[in-house]
């Protein structure tokens, strides 16, 4: 039987923000009578996640991703709704619960800036009461996987962003959390470091059967790591299901790529579909999804085609369609 | 190793990274001490006795107050405020460690470092200036002195933590720190003993918590407090510790509630 590790039902999180009127008079006025209004960051969200799943949690800026992760971590009280992680109510902040999960935020840090990462690791070891043996083994293993073994004794302030983020990740994983919330773990990293990070997350997920929720604005992360995605916008879930299905369901068009044998008039090509690129005898045409084979046949029949492929559009485009169409799809 | 011991240790390691900063800060406190010392020294050039103090007892008072200052008045109240303001207080809500306990241990760790320096500095001053000071030999007075220092340490931690916690509600609590330090310098007794003020004023100030940080312990050391004054002093000191402790805990809980509802 699969174990439902995370259960969220009808979660709402509103931030109470007080309105500040501009100017001195405004400040004085709002000092005496504060006007509050609600920011509806998360609005009626429900989902469940099984043990060992690696979920992509995606959505545009301000969608409510970080807010949801903060509620799941117990940093924020839900305005209403039920939240359970590993059978605990996160906001009770019980230490048995805290010892079993980790929240990693790309822009937040816990390492001591003026000391080597190693010292912060030791502190975490004591805070989480990790046995000596397990600690040594974990540090060794994780830093080997992330290739940061040789920087553990260097002052954090002297590390590069990528090295630091890897060290942050190790610090967050020392207690072997069963549940992991990763908020933009690859933000600001170069392509190579991003790849390394992704490989690591995948490996960690498989090796420890850890349940992971990952948010990212890089579709590469999601494509490589997650089978299932939850798409959220304006605090509401737009889609929850397999990434592959989303492509099937929402891809608005197909992409035909063809190599031509000789130069043809671009105007004639646009009779087939929307010509996106035409250069060096190579043409890229977008055609409606259900007419793809018909259009391909037309292209083959009418033009000197050497080679031809039909592909799905990039995932970024599909997600963008989902966002722009909103709830109606 | 216990988790709070680990905090103690990493705090020392961190402080030692800032050797230059730390040394400059020590130099500053030595200069401050010398300034106060010489002002009082020159006051006594023309007179034998002022406000009931002779030269030796006032100089003893000033030096002992400097020692007490190093133990009682060191605080990470700025850190607490920053950690709340920039949101890294979240680390304490995610991990099995107490926010208050963590900062109390870091304070203790700072104090131990301070004490080792200030003892060295005082020894140097005694050696170079050779002031005639009073060496307290009465063991029960010394014990009461230590007890007062110990309680003062708690009291100041609580006061400064309360000021730090204000950052849950006030975006820029710099003004509050400033106010706290003004009260501290004026009524703490580090510059002059409170009882040189005319009686109604000094009696009023002695109800406030601040004189119990420096003035009260230093005054105990001099051995001139009568038993009723000692009893009254310890009573007021304990009263403030208890009242402010409950206030701190209440504010802390309210702060977490505020944070968790509103976010930072
Ligand atoms: N502390 C706060 N106080 C008030 N409003 C907030 C606070 N934090 C977030 N919000 C608002 O809540 C909404 C959701 O924010 P959230 O940070 O969860 O978005 P996100 O999906 O993580 O976005 P991003 O991709 O930009 O990180 C936004 O409208 C944001 O302005
Ligand atoms: Mg976010």
Can you offer a commentary on this structure?
The complex is a heterodimer of chains A (329) and B (264). With 329 residues, chain A is of the alpha/beta class. Chain A contains 12 helices and 13 strands. Chain A has helices at 23-32, 65-73, 95-98, 117-127, 132-145, 161-173, 191-208, 219-225, 243-250, 266-269, 292-302, 315-325; strands at residues 4-18, 36-50, 54-58, 80-85, 101-105, 179-183, 211-215, 228-233, 236-242, 253-260, 274-279, 282-288, 305-311. In chain A, helix 5 packs antiparallel against helix 6 (161-173). The longest helix of chain A is centred in the middle third of the chain and has 18 residues, at 191-208. Chain A starts with a strand and ends with a helix. In chain A, 37% of the residues are buried. The model of chain A has no long low-confidence stretch (mean pLDDT 89). Chain B has 264 residues and is mainly α. Chain B has one domain (2-263). Chain B has helices at residues 3-17, 19-46, 55-72, 77-85, 90-94, 99-129, 139-165, 174-187, 199-205, 215-222, 227-262; strands spanning 49-50, 53-54. Chain B is globular. At the A-B interface, strand 1, helix 2 and helix 4 of A face helix 1, helix 5 and helix 11 of B. Adenosine-5'-triphosphate is lined by residues 15, 17, 39, 41, 59, 61-67 of chain A. The site of magnesium ion has 3 residues of chain A, from helix 2.
């Amino acid at each position: 039987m699969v174990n439902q590790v995370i259960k969220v039902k009808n979660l709402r999180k509103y931030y109470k923000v007080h309105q500040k009127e501009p100017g001195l008079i405004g400040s004085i006025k709002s000092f005496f009578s504060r006007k509050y209004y609600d920011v509806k960051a998360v609005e009626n969200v429900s989902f469940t996640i099984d043990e060992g799943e690696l979920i992509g949690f995606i959505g545009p800026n301000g969608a409510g991703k970080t807010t949801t992760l903060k509620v799941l971590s117990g940093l924020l009280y839900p305005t209403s709704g039920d939240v359970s992680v590993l059978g605990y109510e996160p906001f009770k902040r019980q230490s048995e619960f805290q010892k079993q999960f980790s929240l990693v935020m790309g822009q937040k840090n816990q390492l001591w800036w003026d000391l080597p990462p190693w010292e912060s690791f030791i502190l975490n070891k004591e805070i989480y009461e990790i046995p000596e043996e397990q600690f040594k083994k974990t540090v060794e293993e994780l830093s080997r996987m992330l290739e940061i073994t040789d920087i553990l004794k260097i002052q954090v302030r002297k590390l590069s962003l990528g090295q630091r983020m890897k060290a942050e990740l190790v610090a967050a994983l020392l207690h072997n959390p069963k549940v992991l919330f990763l908020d933009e773990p690859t933000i600001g990293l170069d392509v190579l470091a991003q790849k390394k990070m992704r490989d690591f997350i995948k490996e960690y997920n498989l090796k420890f059967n850890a349940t992971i929720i990952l948010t990212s604005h890089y579709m590469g992360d999601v494509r490589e790591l997650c089978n299932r995605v939850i798409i959220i916008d304006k605090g509401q879930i737009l889609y929850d299901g397999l990434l592959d299905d989303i492509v099937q369901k929402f891809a608005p068009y197909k992409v035909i790529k063809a190599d031509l044998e000789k130069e043809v008039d671009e105007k004639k090509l646009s009779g087939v579909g929307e010509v996106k690129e035409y250069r060096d005898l190579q043409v890229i045409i977008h055609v409606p999804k259900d007419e793809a084979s018909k259009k391909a046949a037309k292209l083959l029949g009418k033009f000197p085609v050497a080679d031809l492929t039909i592909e799905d559009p990039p995932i970024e485009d599909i997600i963008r369609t989902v966002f722009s169409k909103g709830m109606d799809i | 190793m216990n988790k709070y011991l680990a905090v103690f240790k990493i705090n020392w390691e961190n402080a030692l990274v800032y050797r230059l900063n730390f040394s400059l800060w020590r130099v500053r406190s030595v200069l401050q001490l010398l300034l106060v010392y010489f002002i009082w020294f020159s006051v006594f050039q023309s007179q034998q006795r002022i406000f009931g103090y002779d030269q030796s007892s006032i100089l003893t008072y000033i030096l002992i107050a400097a020692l007490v200052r190093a133990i009682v008045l060191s605080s990470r109240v700025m850190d607490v405020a920053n950690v709340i303001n920039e949101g890294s207080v979240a680390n304490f809500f995610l991990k099995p460690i107490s926010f208050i306990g963590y900062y109390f241990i870091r304070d203790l760790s700072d104090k131990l470092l301070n004490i080792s320096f200030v003892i060295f500095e005082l020894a140097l001053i005694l050696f170079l200036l050779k002031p005639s000071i009073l060496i307290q030999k009465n063991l029960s007075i010394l014990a009461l002195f230590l007890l007062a220092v110990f309680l003062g340490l708690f009291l100041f931690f609580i006061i400064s933590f309360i000021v730090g916690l204000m950052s849950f509600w006030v975006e820029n609590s710099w003004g509050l720190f400033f106010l706290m330090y003004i009260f501290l310098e004026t009524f703490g007794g580090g510059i002059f003993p409170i009882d040189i003020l005319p009686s109604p004023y000094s009696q009023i100030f002695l109800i406030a918590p601040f004189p119990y940080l420096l003035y009260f312990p230093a005054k105990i050391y001099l051995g001139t407090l009568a038993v009723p004054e000692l009893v009254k002093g310890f009573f007021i000191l304990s009263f403030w510790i208890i009242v402010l402790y409950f206030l701190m805990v209440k504010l802390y809980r309210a702060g977490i509630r505020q944070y968790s509802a509103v976010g930072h």
